[in-house]
Every structure is written in C-alpha cells, then in structure tokens.
Amino acid sequence: MTVQGSQANAESDVPHAGAPIDVRDLEFRFGRDGFTLQRDELAIASGERVAFVGPSGCGKTTLLHVLAGILVPERGTVRVGETVVSSADDRARRRFRIREIGLVFQNFELLDYLRVLDNVLLPYRLHPALRLDASVRERARELAGSVGLGDKLGRRIDALSQGERQRVAICRALVTRPSVVLADEPTGNLDPATTARIVDVLFERVAASGATLVVVTHDHGLLDRFDRVVDLAS
Amino acid sequence: MRHWLVLAWRYMIFHRSKSILLIAAITLTLFLPITVYRVVRDYERSLMARAVATPLLVGAKGSRFDLALHALYFRGRVPDTLTMADSDAITASGLAVPTPLHVRFSAEGFPIVGTTLEYFEKRRLEVRAGSRPLRLGDCVVGSRVASSLGLGPGDRLRSDPENVFDLAGQYPLDMRVTGVLATTDSPDDTAVFVDCKTAWILEGLGHGHQDLESADDSVVLGRTEEGVVANAALAQYTIVTDENVDSFHFHGEPGDFPITAIVAWPHDAKSETLLRGRYLEGEAVTQALVPVAVVEELFGLVFRIKKFFDAQAGFVALSTIFFLILVILLSLRLRLDERRTMHKIGCSRVTVFWLHAFELGIVFAISIALAVSAALAATSQAPRLLAWLMTRDPS
Question: Does B312 touch chain A (CB under 8 A)?
Fold first, then answer.
C-alpha cells in the first residue's frame, strides 16, 4: 500500500498534475441489507474529464465518496494516483483528501459565518499539515478573481447569489491544487444561465491546473463537454 | 491552533446575539455566587472587626443583640436607657474609661451619636477637614454623611423632627458642622457626632430661649420674686449661635441625664473581668457584654439560615448548568452539516472537537472575566453598602 500525503508541509503547495484513478472489484454496502454498489472496473486517465450519470439511487455520489476516501469499500481496490485509498486508514485518507482531492458539492456546503476569502482558505485553517502563508492567500485571491469574485472577497456568504456561492465552492476545491476534482451535481440547484457559467469556470480552472475531473450530473446537456461519460446504471 | 481560534472567533462574531446571550447567562450564573460570597465574607469581617475593636458594652438589661447592634452599629433602639451616673460609676471604679453613647435622633436619616471626646480617641477617628465639636450645637459628620449630603465645615445640618404633628414637642436643632471625619469603612462613616449635651438638648432636657426679663408681656404669664413664668409663645432657639449660646441651660441633675449605652475600655484583662462581675448581680438593671461573643452568636444564627440560601443558589446554578449543556448540545446538533462538510474536506474529528472547544472556551473566558470584574467592582462598593445597611433604619 502506498499512501501519499505524509510528506512535509511545503509539498502541498506544489501544483499536482492530474492523477489517474483505478477501481477494481469494488463493492460497497450501506449496512447489512442496504444499497450495494458494485463496480468491476473503472479506469480514469490523468487529466481526463469524466461524467458519472445514471438514475437517482444508482450510486453516483457513493462512488464519488469512495473515490474521495470518505467511504471505505468492503471489497476491492481504489487507487488514486499513487494512493491506495481503499486500504488507507482514516488519518491517511483525511490527509489524502485534503491534499489530493478537491470536492464541490451540490449545496455548496460553505460556512455561513466565514467571508468569501476565509471559505476559500478553509482547508488551510482546518488541516495543520497545510501552511497558510502569503503565497497561499495570494493564490486564493487570484483564484477568486479568475472566477469573478475578486471584488467580493470580504462579502458574507448569505450576500452572494447561488452561482457566486458555487464559484466560491469551486475556488475552495481548487485552492490546494488537487490532482483530482470531484464534483457532486455542482449545477443541480442552478438555473441554466448560471449552470453554463459555472461549468465554464469549473472546466477552465481544472484545465488550467491539469487535474482529473469527475462530475456527477443529471444534466445531459453538459455531457458533450466531457471526455467520457460513465453510465453507472449499465 | 491559531486557525482554530480564528474560526471560533468568526463563528462567535457572526452569531453575536446568541454569543452575547450565552455569555450573559454564564456571567450571571458566575457573578451572583461570587459576589454573594465576597459580600458576605466582607460583611462578616466588617461586623467582626467592629466587635473586636470594642472590648465591652454596658447597657440596660434586655436583648444582647439589640444592645450590640445599637452600640456598635448605631442601629435600632434599646429597651431602656442608662444615666450619666452609670458612666460616672465606671470612671469612679478606675477599671475602665467609659464613653457614653446617646443614639436616639437622626439628621437626614443618619444617626446622631451623642458622645464624649474619648470616643474619637478610642476609635481612632481622625478629622479629615475642620475640627471636632467646639461648643453646644456643633457636630462632626462621618465621611459618607458628608459626601452624601454635600456637607463640609461651616455648613449646617438640621436634626429630623421626631413627630411632625406634635406642635408642643421638641423642635429640630439646626447644628453647625465643624468637621468631617476621615473614612474608616465602619458605621462611624454614616453617623453625625455631637457632644452629649447637644444630644440632651435634642432630648428636650436643655434649651435656650429669649431673655424673659426683656420679653414681651404677651409671653409672660406672671412675674414673681423667684422668677418669671412664660407661656408657650416664648420663642425657643432652634439654633445655637455665639450670641445665644449662654442662654442654653439644662433642667435637672446631670447624673440623671439619659444615655443609651456605654462603651467601656478596660485598662487590662483583670479590670475587664472585675467590671463584668459588677453587672452579674441578680438585681442589676444593667448588663455588660463582650461584643465579639454576641456578634459570633449572631453569626451562628445568620449563617445557619444562609446555608438554606446557599443550597437554593446551588440548585439554581445546577439547573442553569443543565440548561447551558442542553443549549450547547442543541447548538452542536444544528451544526451537524457543518461538521460533515469539514469531515468531507479532510478535517479530523479531533480538530472539529477543538474548534467547538475553542468557541466554548472563548465564551467561558469572556464570561469568567466579566463575572469576576463585575464581582470585584460590586464588592469594592461593599464597605459603603454594608455601612449603609448597618446604619439605616429599614423603616
């Protein structure tokens, strides 16, 4: 087993190239008689942009959480880059998540008591292995500026529109320069115009960083923008 | 750790109303028992210090507590009076120095204490401004009387009428303030000191009036070789001046004039024992008591009752703590999504625990600081409050 992420702090500031994802003989079960997710094989190349589609309840979000190390499978191997996520312990998976994974959620999941910039920098405040210095702050500002939030860094979250909130969430996911960005229905709560803007931002920023992108979506209008679409119902 | 502190602080600032409410609840929960404990402790010390500084009290037979409260704290009345002869008897015994006290009247609600100059010396009362009473009708006021009424040397202070509807009764006396005593944080601060003779004028045993020889016939009922008999229209002086001071005179024997208590200062332990023995006879109408013993007995009664209040306060504090725990648990439950987000990002449960601990820590630190500061501020005023409590008549 190889678990990356236990090196010195400074490493976190090195931009990560996109990491390949390799899933084999996966089985995850919610409880003894609950929903079971099975996947014999799934391979995503480094820097590839993949969409997970399928009906509700087919396990899209569950698979995303397994890839992120939030959920641990009963069986099988999940490898992201050099990290075998499926067999890593809790501490190693947390380190892996905060260093290698950028997560974007449907409901943004921002902290309402923090301003925009503090929300973007949240991973640095939560994890002692990440060092928050001037260069990180500058990067967060640049990132926010690149998605049109440069003049709203001091705003409260409840003063932002839905689209702006999701852009903050994207900045938070990207600020650590992750090798993989996992987005769970990032446009599920947005109107079509805002959806287009958010998808543009997400693809632009991920392309700029070279990260691997996996997006769970129900919006079939977006699928032609991905390199590959994985239908989990099949 | 700095980041956790920042996050905790931002949370508190964002939810400032809730934070302030929580801080206020904890502050009050802490402030009340701290303050009560300190005030009661200071109260006990203050009462005991006064008692310790007073070796022996002599008064009419009756309640020991009444006599102690009356003579030590100028509070309440004694069932009966003594006479100056009782004080003179102590002097004649050669066992102690007596300082007679006459505490019956008041001025602006503050007790007027008739005594002798020995009282100032024995109590080590220093005059901060002006001088001690120089003549009949003069008074020297305690520091809190002076600050409360805005009095200084040269000002005037009128005694309170005993009964405003008794037109034939004693008139209030307009006294001259000759001095202000230094603060002692004792009942002396809230007293008005006069000479015993001035107290007896207030009592109606002495008075001054216009010269009957030159008085108008309308106030004269009759003239004989023995004297002149005047009616009630004769003008009586309610103020002592250099011009009329000689007209003031007393009717009766000085030894029969009343005093309400005597503070006796024995020369030594043997003298004290001998003096106390004189008041132990069965027929004696006076009693001598050691104030420390009486005050300790009083404390025994008071603090036995206080235990019930302590228990009640303890239960109230306990229920408040339960409420606080409930509030905190509910608050944590409301923030479940926030913790899940943090966990998904990669935050450990230990970090989340510390984040919440810092928030509570800040709340408790502010609450404790506020409670202690408020308690210190409140108890710094305790001597003034206690002096006021001990000298003001609740009625």
Answer: no
Closest by Cα among A68, A69, A67, A22 to A46: A22
Quote the tokens at residue B174: 């307009």
Return the amino acid letter for B65. F
Work out the burial of residue B319: count CB atoms within 10 Å of its CB; fewer than 13 is exposed, 13-18 middle, 19 or more buried: exposed
> Which residues in A lie closer than 8 A to residue B347 (C-beta atoms)?
94, 98, 126-127
Q: Is B349 on the interface with A (CB under 8 A)?
A: no
In a domain, A227, yes or no: no
Better-predicted residue by pLDDT, A219 or B167: A219
Question: Of the candidates B6, B338, B343, which has its C-beta nearest A125's C-beta?
Answer: B6
Asked, for residue A229, whether it belongs to a domain, the answer is: no
Look at residue A59 and tell me if it is in a domain: yes
What ipTM was predicted for this assembly? 0.83
List per-residue pLDDT tens for chain A, 234 residues long.
Answer: 333 333 333 344 555 667 899 999 999 988 777 788 888 899 999 999 999 999 988 889 999 999 999 999 999 999 999 899 999 999 999 989 988 999 998 888 999 999 999 999 999 988 878 888 999 999 999 989 888 888 999 999 999 988 899 989 999 999 999 999 999 988 887 788 888 888 888 898 888 888 999 999 988 888 999 999 999 887
Q: Report which residue type is found at A47.
A: G
- List chain B domain ranges: 2-47+301-391, 56-208+248-289
Residue among A99, A103, A128 minimizing CB distance to B344? A103
Mean pLDDT to the nearest integer, B82-88: 92
CA atoms within 13 A on the CB side of A96: 27
Number of domains into which chain A is organized? 1
Return the structure tokens found at B128. Answer: 């901060």
B377: left (phi over 0), alpha (psi -120 to 50) or beta: alpha
Structure token digits, residue B265:
């200062």
Q: What 3-state DSSP class applies to A184? A: strand
Which tokens sit at B185? 């944080």
Number of H helices, E strands in chain B: 12, 16
Whose structure tokens read 């300790």?
A: B296
- For B275: left if phi > 0, alpha if psi spans -120 to 50, otherwise beta; the answer is alpha
The whole domain housing A148 covers: 9-222
Cα–Cα separations (whole angstroms), residue A29 to A63, A64, A65, A201, B284: 11, 14, 13, 35, 99
Residue A3 lies in a domain: no
In angstroms, rounded to a whole number, what is the distance separating the alpha carbons of residues B279 and B273? 10
Assign residue B263 a region: left if phi > 0, alpha if psi is -120 to 50, beta otherwise?
A: beta
Q: What is the CATH number of the domain that holds A79?
A: 3.40.50.300
Identify the CA nearest to B118 among candidates B292, B258, B264.
B264
A67-82 pLDDT tens trace: 999 999 999 999 999 8
> How far, in Å, are A195, B137, B192, B366 from residue B176 at the CA level?
91, 6, 11, 52
* Of B267, B262, B289, B288, nearest in space to B99 by CA: B262
> CA angle B97-B99-B102, nearest 5°?
160
Does any CB of chain B come closer than 8 Å to the CB of residue A70?
Answer: yes
